[in-house]
Automatic annotation (TrEMBL):
Cofactor field: pyridoxal 5'-phosphate
Function in brief: Pyridoxal 5'-phosphate (PLP)-binding protein, which is involved in PLP homeostasis.
Source species: Neolewinella marina
Modified residues (N6-(pyridoxal phosphate)lysine): K27
NCBIfam families linked to this entry: YggS family pyridoxal phosphate-dependent enzyme
Stated family: Belongs to the pyridoxal phosphate-binding protein YggS/PROSC family.
Protein name: Pyridoxal phosphate homeostasis protein
Positions of the Alanine racemase N-terminal domain: 11-219
Alphabetical list of Pfam families matching this protein: Ala_racemase_N (PF01168)
InterPro entries membership: Ala_racemase_N, PLP-binding_barrel, PyrdxlP_homeostasis
C-alpha cells in the first residue's frame, strides 16, 4: 500500500506537469485527513455541502483555499461566502445575483457551471442559457462577483473518446465565452474539469483545475 504522502506527491506532480492545479475533494473524509495533506503543503480543498464545510472550516488552518463544488442553494449563500475562495457551481443568474447581494465588501470568485454530460441533470448551464446570463450581466453588472472561468462534469462512462469530446466541448465554450465577454479580463482563465476517473483526459483537454477525491483518499463512506 502506498502511503497517502506518496500518492499525493505522485498525483500533485502529474497535475502540475500538465500546468493545472489540484483540488483535493474531501467530502465525507475527516479533518485529520485534511490536516495530513495540509502538513504536506497542500492548500486547495473541495467540499460539496455547506453544512459539512461549516463543520470542518473552524477546525482547520485559516490559509486553506476552500473550493465549493456542489450545487449551491440561494438560502445557503450567506453561510458559505465567508468560508470559500472559489465557487465552482455558478449555475444560474439568480444564484449569481444572490452572491453579489450577500458579498458586502468582498470580491467573490465564481465559475460558470455548464452541463456537458449526456446524463440528465437539473444543474448546469447550456450554451444558450449561459449566453442569456452573460448578456444580462453585461446589461446590469455584478459588483462583487468576478467570473473567472467555467466548470463541468463529463458523463460517467468508460468511453474515453466520449469523455474527451465532452471536455473538448467545455474548452470550446470557455474560449467562445472569453472571446465574447471577457477578452480584456486575464482573470477569466480557469477550466475546472476532471475527477478521479477522468482527470487524465481532462488534463489533455486543457483543464486548469482538477477536482480529485477517491483516487487519493479511497472510496467514500456515506453513512
Ligand atoms: C465528489 C466530487 C468530485 C470528486 O470525485 P472523485 O470521483 O472522488 O474524484 C469532483 N467534483 C465534484 C463536483 C464532486 O461532487
Amino acid at each position: 500500500m502506498p502511503t497517502l504522502s506518496d500518492a499525493y506527491s505522485t498525483l500533485s506532480r502529474e497535475v502540475a506537469a500538465a500546468g493545472a492545479r489540484l483540488v483535493v475533494v474531501t467530502k465525507t473524509h475527516p479533518v485529520e485527513v485534511i490536516r495530513e495533506l495540509y502538513e504536506l503543503g497542500h492548500r486547495d480543498f473541495g467540499e460539496n455541502r455547506v453544512s459539512e464545510l461549516e463543520e470542518k472550516h473552524p477546525q482547520l488552518p485559516k490559509d486553506i483555499n476552500w473550493h465549493f463544488i456542489g450545487h449551491l442553494q440561494r438560502n445557503k449563500v450567506k453561510n458559505v461566502l465567508p468560508l470559500v475562495s472559489l465557487i465552482h457551481s455558478g449555475d444560474s443568474l439568480r444564484l449569481l445575483r444572490e452572491i453579489d447581494k450577500r458579498a458586502s465588501d468582498r470580491r467573490v470568485d465564481v465559475l460558470l457551471q455548464y452541463h456537458i454530460a449526456e446524463e440528465e441533470s437539473k444543474y448546469g448551464l447550456t450554451v444558450e442559457s449561459g449566453r442569456q446570463l452573460l448578456e444580462s450581466i453585461r446589461e446590469q453588472p455584478l459588483k462583487h462577483v468576478r467570473i473567472v472561468g467555467v466548470m463541468g462534469m463529463a458523463t460517467y462512462t468508460d468511453d474515453k473518446e466520449q469523455v474527451a469530446q465532452e471536455f473538448r466541448t467545455l474548452h470550446e465554450i470557455y474560449s467562445s465565452v472569453k472571446e465574447e465577454f471577457f477578452l480584456d479580463e486575464p482573470t477569466f482563465s480557469e477550466i475546472s474539469m476532471g475527477m478521479s476517473g477522468d482527470y487524465e483526459v481532462a488534463l489533455q483537454q486543457g483543464s486548469t483545475l482538477v477536482r480529485i477525491g477517491s483516487r487519493l483518499l479511497g472510496e467514500r463512506n456515506y453513512d
